[in-house]
Specification:
- With 399 residues, the protein is α/β, with parallel strands linked by helices.
- It is built from 15 helices and twelve strands.
- The strands form two sheets. Strands 1-7-6-5-4-2-3 form a seven-stranded mixed sheet, with helices on both faces.
- The longest helix is centred in the last third of the chain and has 20 residues, at 264-283.
- Bound molecules: pyridoxal-5'-phosphate.
């Protein structure tokens, strides 16, 4: 008979017999640490002599499987080898990468029409670390080349295409080539596209970041981010920053993201076809001033989008005639679309950037980049297309 006490039995794990366990679906390793077989294994692990998992901030099988899968998808149909580091959010991905590759005295060159939080991060945190920030129109290639020639402190070109929320596009291949020629890193936030629509690493970019909170998870159930890069040593640095800042992902959020990604291709097709249908409907509507959707032939960057995107995605923005006031009335009359400050979910989400996602971006930067007071952003979901058009049509009738 065993002599252990009740409390002792309760507080220890009931070990599973590994040989009988062959999970079909990625298991959730919801554990903060991993035990050692013996002291020798513990010593070797701490000395970095084996790849043993031991503490989830350093690494966890669920988290790593998701990071690896995104790296595989980002390099799909190429011989490029990439490494992914999964972190706690899109903002964590951006901050972890930028603090790895930049130091005091360096400068980051970027655009004014970024995700609102990214602009805020640059000005409120990164700028305070003695890192310069310069905004320019990155689609002006001559100006970009001259800028890099003139200013040797520029270390990183950071951009989004299509950009949030104006949907302006930048030619990734051209920017990456200019960066490469000058020894400047190019970083692209690929959140709006996912690797199914756009593969920046294949076009020469050095790093891709994502908010996996959005399309990669796709169901609005988890917050997460990822950095993917082709330079193994730099990615080792990103991993080190992640581990030391503690920007690591949570295993549960990683696991939810793993489930969500299984339908990524199907979802991106439906998001894109619904968005095109809505953009076409809005563009023809008498109460609409303008529509920004890269899939419309009238969009100024349509040809660039066509060159580098497989489909045109689920994001669009538009302005109703009458500006902010009629815009607010429209939002109040929407019935089907959800008023929520995220994107990339299965339901259609509607948002007013000037008062919500971009409220902390200075007004002059917003205005210069088309984020006007009357602009409305739609993250088009995977509902039935007719129901979506009907909802917008009835709301427009009422304004
Ligand atoms: C949401 C978003 C982010 C930030 O991601 P979080 O997961 O919310 O931290 C960064 N870039 C883009 C384009 C986004 O849409």
């Amino acid at each position: 008979m065993k002599k252990r006490h009740f409390g002792t039995l309760c507080s220890h794990e009931q070990k599973i017999r590994q040989k009988t366990v062959r999970p079909h679906v990625l298991p959730l390793y919801q554990t903060s640490s991993f035990e050692f077989e013996d002291i020798q294994e513990g010593i070797a692990t701490f000395q970095g002599k084996n790849e043993q998992h031991f503490y989830s901030r350093y690494g966890n099988p669920t988290i790593e499987a998701v990071a690896e899968k995104i790296a595989v998808l980002e390099t799909y149909q190429s011989d490029i080898e990439a490494t992914g580091v999964l972190v706690s959010s899109g903002m964590a991905a951006i901050a972890t990468l930028l603090t790895t590759i930049l130091q005091s005295g360096d400068k980051i060159l970027t655009q004014g029409n970024l995700y609102g939080g990214t602009t805020e991060l640059l000005y409120k945190v990164i700028g305070r670390m003695g890192i310069g920030i310069e905004l320019m129109d990155l689609s002006d290639e001559t100006a970009l080349e001259e800028c890099l020639k003139r200013d040797k402190t520029i270390k990183v070109i950071y951009f989004e295409t299509p950009a949030n929320p104006s949907l302006a596009c930048v030619d990734i291949q051209k920017v990456a080539a200019i960066g490469k020629a000058k020894g400047v890193f190019t970083v692209l936030d690929n959140t709006f596209c996912t690797p199914y629509l756009q593969q920046p690493l294949l076009l020469g970019a050095d790093f891709v970041v994502h908010s996996t909170t959005k399309y990669l998870n796709g169901h609005g159930t988890a917050t997460g981010g990822v950095v993917v890069g082709t330079d193994k040593e730099m990615m080792r640095g990103v991993w080190q920053t992640m581990k030391l800042f503690g920007t690591n992902a949570s295993p549960f959020d990683a696991w939810l993201t793993s489930n969500g990604m299984k339908t990524l291709e199907l979802r991106m097709h439906r998001h894109s076809s619904n968005a095109l249908a809505l953009a076409t409907f809005l563009a023809e509507h008498e109460k609409i001033e303008s529509v920004n959707y890269p899939g419309l032939a009238t969009h100024p960057d349509h040809l660039i989008a066509q060159k580098q995107m497989r489909l045109f995605g689920g994001m669009l923005s538009f302005e109703v005639k009458g500006g902010l006031e009629t815009g607010v009335r429209l939002l109040n009359n929407i019935e089907l679309c959800t008023l929520a400050p995220t994107l990339g979910d299965t339901d259609t989400l509607i948002l007013h950037p000037a008062s919500m996602s971009h409220v902390n971006v200075p007004r002059d930067i917003r205005m210069k980049n088309g984020i006007t007071d009357g602009l409305i952003r739609l993250s088009v979901g995977i509902e039935n297309e007719e129901d979506l058009i009907a909802d917008l049509a009835q709301a427009l009738d009422k304004i």
